[in-house]
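User: I'm preparing a small set of examples for a lab meeting where we compare how different chains pack in three dimensions. I only have the primary sequence for this one, and I'd like the structure in token form so I can line it up with the others. Please keep the answer compact; I'll paste it straight into my notes.
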Amino acid sequence: MDNRRFRALVLCAAAVAMATVPIEAQQIADVRYDVVFNAETAVRREIHVEMSFLVRDDAPVTLSLPAWTPGSYELDDYARNVRGFWARHDGSEIRWDKTDYDTWRVHP
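Assistant: Understood. Below is the structure token output for the 108-residue chain.
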């Protein structure tokens, strides 16, 4: 199997919730998050989050930010704070689209 690593960058202005993958979507492996919060990003009230993962084939990968926090009984809608999103493979930008207000689909 050909495993390929993809990177998605999400710039958020609020707390970051872990991305989830619906059961019907392609399974991903070796998920890593790199988070940057420093003096420069603090001034802009941003948290830079880069997620990388491996995929097995060319099926789309669905990434979603939940609208709630476990243990909380209110909706927080974290996706509204996403300021930028991109997806790359080996340094080249790849196609992605937004399927609803809190879900992005990356096309390997």
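A couple of notes for your slides: Residues 8-23 have pLDDT under 50 and may be disordered. The chain is about 5% helix and 45% strand.

User: Perfect, thanks.
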